[in-house]
Write a structure and sequence with these properties.
The chain is of the alpha/beta class. It has 2 domains: 190 residues, Medium-chain alcohol dehydrogenases, catalytic domain (Quinone Oxidoreductase, Chain A, domain 1), CATH 3.90.180; 131 residues, NAD(P)-binding Rossmann-like Domain (Rossmann fold), CATH 3.40.50. Strands 3, 4, 5, 8, 9, 16 and 17 form a 7-stranded mixed β-sheet that branches. A 6-stranded parallel β-sheet has the order 12-11-10-13-14-15. The chain contains 11 helices and 17 strands. A hairpin with an 8-residue loop joins β1 and β2. It is globular. Bound molecules: NADP nicotinamide-adenine-dinucleotide phosphate and zinc ion (2 copies). NADP nicotinamide-adenine-dinucleotide phosphate binds next to α1, α4 and α5. The site of one zinc ion has 9 residues, from α2.
Length: 347
């Protein structure tokens, strides 16, 4: 066992504190990653605060992990010492079900092993990336292209793939009219990626406060959802709406903005059930869908796409002692556009 420095939540209501955690010995198929940066995803906050149900404390979260390989097991073939690598939201899956065989490990029927707060193969609870090192099966480790700086690459491992996957699944390209609800971590990546895929992109944000940023990131249009006119002016305007909001929204109001045969895909994950009137769907043969992160193969494809198109995340790098403050700013929608922890400050 390796004892490493980390930040952990002692309970749902207390701030995260410095601590140490255990990593397993490097097995034959494992790689040991020295973590350089870890992004702060809103899911980290939902999880440690118990929004999605009880978790076991103390808990170290973080699933936007980048760093370098410092040790590999005897049977490792995909990674070598010194490689720039990333680890996202999963560290294992059954590998046998239809989803796993299709490279969609995020939909593993037996449940994939999450990077944190999941039961690992050895029965321990997985601990995430707010720590100096992590040991991961090589199949769940991806290559981070040289051209993407580490800190700007970290959020791609969750925010990037979570928005890239639905954009690809719904075949967004030139001529697609895409709306993104919420300009936070996921939202800003959705804007960049949809723009790079050739879509006409509209941001639907609570206010016009971040309009200049939204347009700089690649949006063609920007509207405030606090203005009731937005919901009348934009009726039947979009082929795909990606909802990234972490809180409940009025789904019917947004579904009315879909063009004929349009789809609204929820990636935002509020704990509450959200009502929909089926008549809203009838009016444009609309679909309401959900999408969960992305598979390992698609995550690598997304990283390569980002390198090819010169895309990465807009980040604010913080030291570990600022994590709790960053959480409050994320909760206040005051993030531009992802907080990333400089892991060298975890001591
Ligand atoms: P984030 O950075 O906090 O962004 C969420 C954005 O939603 C905010 O910046 C804000 O944008 C908007 N918003 C927040 N509260 C709102 C409210 N009450 N009403 C309307 N809009 C509001 O969070 P994130 O890291 O992007 O994550 C977003 C959600 O996706 C979370 O629920 C997270 O758990 C979930 N998630 C899901 C997956 C998946 O696989 N499906 C993966 C990662 C994360 P504006 O200021 O522009 O309005
Ligand atoms: Zn995440
Ligand atoms: Zn499976």
């Amino acid at each position: 066992m390796l004892t490493v420095n980390a930040y952990a939540a002692p309970s749902a209501t207390e701030p995260l504190v410095p601590t140490t955690i255990q990593r397993r010995d490097v097995g034959p198929k494992d790689v040991l990653v020295k973590i350089r940066y870890a992004g702060i995803c809103h899911s980290d906050i939902h999880t440690v605060r118990g929004d999605w149900g009880p978790v076991q404390y103390p808990l170290t979260v973080g699933h936007e992990i980048v760093g370098e390989v410092v040790e590999v097991g005897d049977e490792v073939t995909k990674h070598a010492v010194g490689d720039r690598v990333g680890v996202g939201c999963m560290v294992n899956s059954c590998r046998e079900c239809d989803s796993c065989r299709a490279g969609e490990e995020q939909y593993c029927t037996g449940g994939n092993v999450g990077t944190y707060a999941s039961v690992d193969r050895d029965g321990t609870i997985t601990q995430g990336g707010y720590s100096t090192h992590i040991v991961v099966d090589e199949d769940f480790v991806v290559h981070v292209p040289e051209s993407i700086p580490y800190e700007a690459a970290a959020p791609l491992l969750c925010a990037g793939i979570t928005t890239y996957s639905p954009l690809r699944h719904w075949k967004v390209g030139k001529g697609s009219r895409v709306a993104v609800i919420g300009l936070g971590g996921l939202g800003h990546m959705a804007v960049k990626l949809a723009h790079a895929l050739g879509a006409e992109v509209t941001v639907l944000s609570q206010s016009l406060r971040k309009k200049d940023d939204g347009l700089r990131l690649g949006a063609d249009h920007y509207f405030a959802t606090s203005d009731p006119a937005t919901f009348t002016d934009l009726v039947r305007s979009f082929d795909l709406i990606i909802n990234t909001v972490s809180a409940p929204v009025d789904l019917d109001a947004y579904l009315r903005l879909l063009a004929l045969n349009g789809t609204m895909v929820n990636v935002g994950a509020p704990p509450e059930a959200l009502p929909i009137h089926v008549f809203t769907l009838f009016s444009s043969r609309a679909s309401f869908a959900g999408s969960s992160i992305g598979g390992i193969r698609e995550t690598q494809e997304m990283l390569d796409f980002c390198a090819e198109h010169g895309i990465a995340s807009d980040v604010e790098v913080i030291s570990a002692d600022a994590i709790n403050e960053a959480y409050e700013r994320v909760l206040a929608s005051d993030v531009r556009y992802r907080f990333v922890i400089d892991v060298s400050t975890i001591r």
